[in-house]
Design goal:
With about 450 residues, the protein is α/β, with parallel strands linked by helices. The chain folds into 2 domains: about 35-195 and about 335-410, 3-Layer(aba) Sandwich (Rossmann fold); about 195-330 and about 415-435, Rossmann fold. The chain has helices at about 20-30, 35-45, 90-110, 130-145, 155-160, 160-170, 195-210, 225-240, 260-270, 280-290, 335-350, 355-375, 380-385, and strands at about 50, 80-85, 120-125, 150, 170-175, 190, 215-220, 245-250, 270-275, 300, 325-330, 395, 400, 415-420, 425-435. The two termini are about 20 Å apart.
């Protein structure tokens, strides 16, 4: 894929390395001889900011109700931090990775002396990828005096608690809830990921650049994430002159049969099908069923594909995953020092290569560290004001970025491809996107 349409700007994302498979990356990391302590010392630089850390942000609101129990959130030389993620259920891979990433950052910070001399006390909760359970998890954290939260992971769950977080004056940084609506109305909500309006448009621009004039979409109309990406992709296709000639939907995100949807794509003769689903259906069902239905064109998705290569069905024809592309927040094969320090530390701690959800949650904790240091306080209102400073530049694992007025990073994305010779599925970097074409 050429770079004619996409602009890669120095300082917007770290320089990516050459294409390499996940298998090759893991093997290279395992032969490193540096001990975890050395990696920890280096990764402490992973997400600092270029702002003047001597400045402080003032609190503009008095805490009342549940917020009053939080006070500075650092009583007894501890800073209370909570995480909300689906550690069980169909999306447990995402939730466990996010929790691990956050815990790794907390461990590093505490071992280096904490934040302003205070240690972080983390409470991890499980929302089971269910909005009701997410609200329950949030309420349990609030009742425990937590005023700073990393979570949740999915857009559907996160959107269920943003109103409550704003009302309770609890700061939330979601690592991976990409729906545009997440940060548009709630003053205490921020994120470490880009938004779907950018992510969906990348796929449309890729179709335009690659010469695909007729595309289709298979999505879930009932899901916030999938519907948001469909809307973004469709609007961008219209802008770039790409015709959406076939649209099929499913009743839920966990449907296990996509044969009819792809039979319609074959009938329509489309060149590319955009399928915004999660890894738990991409790996075992959607891709192989699309090929079995006779569709041999491009399948493209979003960050929900991360980890799908580990969820394929034994005995399946894995060459079906060739010509499957997706957008993501980082590439673990990126040869930049900050990425490789994080990957090494994560592999040493958990025995596996991190997916993007781990990197994003890791970044969330360091964003909190930076905001607390600049605010001179862990009080949620002061931290909120520090995070709302759009002049701050964060230097993180998933990129170098500032937050816009909505609390969303202004940063780029990676385009990743699956590749298979038949016995396994690996990944390779295709391109790095820092901005979208005008037309």
């Amino acid at each position: 894929m050429s770079g004619a349409f996409f602009v890669s700007e120095t300082g917007r994302l770290p320089q990516r390395g050459r294409n390499s498979s996940k298998e090759e990356t893991v093997m290279k990391k395992r032969i490193l001889s540096a001990v975890l302590a050395a990696a920890t010392a280096l990764t402490m630089m992973a997400c600092g900011s270029s702002a003047d850390t001597s400045s402080t942000a003032s609190s503009t609101a008095d805490s009342t109700g549940a917020a009053a129990t939080k006070e500075t959130a650092a009583a007894g030389d501890t800073i209370k931090l909570g995480t909300i993620a689906p550690k069980t259920g169909s999306l447990a891979s995402f939730g466990i990775a996010a929790t691990n990433g956050a815990n790794l950052a907390v461990k590093e910070i505490n071992e280096a002396g904490g934040i302003n001399g205070a240690q972080i006390e983390v409470t991890n909760t499980d929302d089971q990828s269910d909005p009701t359970e997410c609200l329950n998890a949030f309420n349990s954290l609030v009742s425990d005096g937590v005023g700073l939260v990393v979570g949740s992971v999915t857009s559907g769950c996160t959107s269920a608690v943003t109103g409550a977080a704003n009302e309770e004056q609890v700061v939330m940084i979601t690592p991976s809830a990409t729906a545009d609506s997440i940060t548009t109305e709630d003053d205490y909500i921020f994120r470490a990921c880009y938004a779907d309006s950018f992510q969906g448009a990348i796929a449309a621009a890729y179709a335009k650049q690659s010469g695909y004039t007729s595309v289709g979409v298979v999505y879930c109309a009932a899901d916030t994430y999938s519907k948001g990406l469909y809307d973004s992709f469709s609007a961008a296709c219209e802008k770039y002159g790409v015709s959406v000639d076939a649209v099929e939907s499913t009743a839920s995100m966990d449907v296990q049969d996509y044969t009819n949807q792809f039979a319609s794509m074959v009938k329509a003769g489309v060149d590319l099908v955009y399928c915004p689903y999660y890894y738990d259906v991409i790996g075992p069902y959607l891709v192989t069923q699309a090929r079995a239905a006779g569709y041999d064109g491009i399948i493209m998705g979003a960050d929900g594909y991360d980890g799908a290569a580990d969820y394929t069905v034994e005995g399946a024809d894995l060459t079906a995953f060739n010509d499957v592309y997706w957008t993501n927040h980082f590439d673990p094969a990126d040869d930049s020092e900050v990425v490789q320090n994080f990957v090494k530390a994560y592999e040493d701690a958990y025995g596996e290569t991190p997916i993007s959800f781990a990197a994003l949650a890791y970044d969330c904790v360091y964003m909190y560290k930076d905001a607390i240091e600049r605010a001179g306080s862990a009080d949620p209102a002061a931290v909120r004001d520090a995070l709302a400073d759009t002049s701050v530049t964060y230097n993180c694992v998933t990129g170098t970025f500032s937050l816009d007025e909505s609390g969303t990073p202004q940063k780029g994305a990676s385009i990743i491809a699956f590749t298979s010779e038949g016995s396994s599925v690996t990944t390779k970097l295709v391109d790095v996107v820092s901005s979208l074409p005008e037309e």
